Amino acid sequence: MWLREFVDWRPFDYFTCRTMAPLVGRFVGPRPEIETVEFVPHGERGTRIVSRVRLTDRGRFSLLTFRAQRRLYAAFWRRANAALLSIVEEDAAALGPDESAVHGTVPNNP
Length: 110
Fold this sequence. Notes:
The protein is of the alpha+beta class. The chain is built from two helices and four strands, in the order ββββαα.
């Protein structure tokens, strides 16, 4: 189980949270960290998601454990990003070709 404390956010731009997994042992599992996720415009209709992580404990053991788990961490994010893309594609297909719905704009009322 992960605990997240959101410490800063700007809707549709970024959020920063402090994360930890209190029920996992000291030698295994994710390390406590500060994570920032940023949503950066990419082209006319896209968004790039940029994630930055900084370990809270910068000691030798913590950094070594994080390095050992880096591949697992990357695999998790690849799966999570694929799931997010699938959800976005389903939503876009359900909205149809209506440009105002895709861009989230409200049509002008005369």
